[in-house]
Amino acid sequence: MNLQRSGVELHEIDDLIQDAYCKFAALESVDHIDRPPAFFMQIVKNLRRDRLRRDKIVNFEEFTENGEPTVNDWEPSIEKAVSARQELGLVEAVLETLPRRCRDIFTLKRIEGLSQREIARRLEVTENIVENDVQKAVKALQNKLRATEATELKEALVEADRKQTG
């Protein structure tokens, strides 16, 4: 597999190869490896896939359908900081309502960025369980955020109506 031909940037190729060497060097034994070059390239492919997956991790702001684009501001406004704290509190509250395994899997996947395989191995469950529990958590978060938005919208409409009539 030619990494550059598959669309990988040059700087990323160097990082992938370096990370693959580190993983290869960390192996306790290499006796089980029949074809070292193929094994090494598989490590590189897996690292690339993991990076692509991590890049796809959705920010909690994107759960709201009308979220503003994320801007990397070094010092967010007070309103944004308060809103982010409230949203984080809401997420934590929703996660607390989930079964422990589901909550742990979601945290490992979406916050720590582990792969399904790593999570399954760590928690001694199948990859299907990992995938299903992540989906359950995401749906619970989406439902709660939509309900919260609807409530806030209703409150804003009531307040606007009160101002017009009063």
Automatic annotation (TrEMBL):
RNA polymerase sigma-70 region domain mapped to chain residues: 11-55
Database matches in Pfam families: Sigma70_r2, Sigma70_r4_2
InterPro entries the UniProt entry points to: RNA_pol_sigma-70-like (IPR039425), RNA_pol_sigma-70_dom (IPR014284), RNA_pol_sigma70_r2 (IPR007627), RNA_pol_sigma70_r4_t2 (IPR013249), RNA_pol_sigma_r2 (IPR013325), RNA_pol_sigma_r3/r4-like (IPR013324), WH-like_DNA-bd_sf (IPR036388)
Gene3D superfamilies: Winged helix-like DNA-binding domain superfamily/Winged helix DNA-binding domain
Keyword set includes Transcription: yes
Keywords: Sigma factor, Transcription, Transcription regulation
SUPFAM superfamilies on file: Sigma2 domain of RNA polymerase sigma factors (SSF88946), Sigma3 and sigma4 domains of RNA polymerase sigma factors (SSF88659)
Keyword set includes Disulfide bond: no
Residues covered by the RNA polymerase sigma factor 70 region 4 type domain: 90-141
PANTHER family given in the database record: RNA POLYMERASE ECF-TYPE SIGMA FACTO, RNA POLYMERASE SIGMA-70 FACTOR ECF SUBFAMILY
Membership in a protein family: Belongs to the sigma-70 factor family. ECF subfamily.
Protein name, as recorded: Sigma-70 family RNA polymerase sigma factor
